[in-house]
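Illustration 12: Tetratricopeptide repeat protein.
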Amino acid sequence: MDLLEEYRRATFFFESGDPLGAAKLLEPIVEAEPHNTAVRQLLARAYFNSAQLTKAEEQLRTLVEHDPSDHYAHHVLGRTLERGGRFREALPHLRLAAAMNQQADYQEALHRAEQWLGKPENA
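Figure caption equivalent — predicted structure in token form:
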């Protein structure tokens, strides 16, 4: 199997709106290259986009453990937990992402979680 070609195919599937197809292509690549962050991140996003939240969470926790300064992994992990209704667990990851990188979508996700939990914005 040509891993690079499979990754390109998976990216095409993902960008074409087929996260399930992308995940099926990415799973063996992550197995073969467990330290490849880009592949694991795309797999996590494919799981998230196909509502496979437990699988997305597993991949994202691995990314955060490997690189605690990965603001995007924290953000998507927070969003995954938020999407599963686990706002209290999501909040620390969303706060870290928002503190590390001042992107509008990070701030919006943090605000949503805080609102859901009834926490004041400046607490």
